[in-house]
Amino acid sequence: MFLPAFAMQAENQPIQADTCVKVKKNTIFRRIGRVFTGVFRDFNKIDTNYIEPQHYNYTVMLQNTTTYEEYKINSKSGQSVTFAPRPTVKIGPYVGWRWVFLGYTVDISKFDHSENKKELDLSLYSSLIGIDLYYRKTGNDYRIRKADLGNGMDEKILKGIPFSGLSVKIKGFDLYYILNHRKFSYPAAFSQSTCQKRSCGSPLLGIGYMTHDISLDHKELERVITENLNNNPDYTGEDIKLDNGLMFNNVRYTSYSISGGYAYNWVFARNFLFSASLSVGLAYKKSDGDRIDKNNFFLRDFNFDDINIDGIGRFGLVWNNTKWYAGASTILHSYNYHKSQFSTNSMFGSLNIYVGMNFGKK
User: Fold this and answer.
1) Consecutive H or E run containing 146
2) Which of 57, 112, 206, 226 has its CA 20 to 30 A from that of 157?
3) Residue 125, SS3?
4) Which residues of 187-219 are buried (b: 16+ CB within 10 A; e: fewer)?
């Protein structure tokens, strides 16, 4: 009886080791990997009765961005001066792949802006969490928006006067968790990657970190105010002197915050969405001049007077039929800082108006 060649080899030779099935060990690294994979997968889990998922891989968009900022400085006696530069207007194209957007904008403002001015605003949205990253360095193109210095002075009498003695630098982030993320979609309102099919809302929880640096040339401010009041025929009051609370050179503080809020997506017509959200945060703020211990922990120096209330508002109006989309959105940040002799209130934000198209079906 003759056996086939492959059968003879099977009888006469031992089984090779590489024909055995190798069982992967369930190491701690694989267990950790499965946990992270599950978390990332949960980032974009949605209820399709409420949210229409993205059907395309790519998008192109043209966007116009207008940024605005305002800073108000108050003294204990009630004097206050509000500064604001003229808005910056930029326009440019963007190309996106899923979560990633790249673009280039050109300043088309009719006004001359400082070359030292720098702005970076980046927002990332998933169904589960979102994050706002920002960095702003102002130039020297501020103008006095209004001033309340006492003696019956009209707060608008100095409106529009240029002032180059203010410099502000802000950097930080806000991270927030969307509790009802399976039915409520932030991306539908702010990144056009999904569509909200039915109206729905969600509570928000967040944390934030920020450093804020304010430099003020108070001698220049006093000179500008005195010179312009003396040359203004509408002012007939007495000479004005700045309160000591406004006569500082530099304030730098760090802020740690926890926040809570609510967001709502209103689907008021087919393919149309209006979104509004507001978060209010309790922020603990310590300036560089405050004492901290050698390990840089400030728990021993905790003071309830250093707790301030900040706010973040987000609003969006979108038309999206999954292929084409257009709309507008804005994000506004408000920060407050109080000391015994003075306080500051700052606000900055951006308005985006855009139109785009998705392509490359998944």
Assistant:
1) strand 142-148
2) 112
3) strand
4) bbbbbbbbbbbeebbbebebebebebebebeee
* Residues contacting residue 13 through CB under 8 Å, at least 6 positions apart: none
Instruction: Find the radius of gyration of the CA atoms of the chain.
Output: 29
Domain 58-361 grouped into CATH 2.40.128:
yes
Tens of pLDDT, residues 122-179: 888 888 888 989 898 887 789 999 988 877 777 788 889 999 889 889 999 999 999 9
Tell me which residue of 206, 193, 357, 173 sits closest to 279, measured CA to CA.
206
237: left (phi over 0), alpha (psi -120 to 50) or beta: beta
- Tell how far CA 93 is from the center of its chain: 21
Instruction: Give how far Cα 29 sits from Cα of 21, 35, 329, Å.
Output: 21, 10, 42
- Domain residue extents for the chain: 58-361
- The full 3-state SS of 249-268, as one line of letters, equals CEEEEEEEEEEEEEEEEEEE
CA dist 353 → 66, 278, 313, 319 (Å): 9, 20, 17, 12
CA angle 203, 208, 211 (to 5 degrees): 155
**Residue 247 contacts by C-beta under 8 Å, 6 or more apart in sequence?**
218
Q: How far is CA 118 from CA 111, 137, 139, 336, in A?
A: 16, 5, 8, 22
148 exposure class (CB count in 10 Å sphere: 0-12, 13-18, 19+): middle
Structure tokens at 181: 């993320």
* Global confidence as pTM: 0.80
Q: Work out the angle at residue 311's Cα, subtended by the Cα atoms of residues 305 and 315, and round it to the nearest 5 degrees.
A: 180
Contact 277, 204 (CB under 8 A): yes
Residues sharing a CB contact under 8 Å with residue 110, sequence separation 6 or more, in sequence order: none
CA pseudo-torsion sign 8, 13, 15, 17: negative
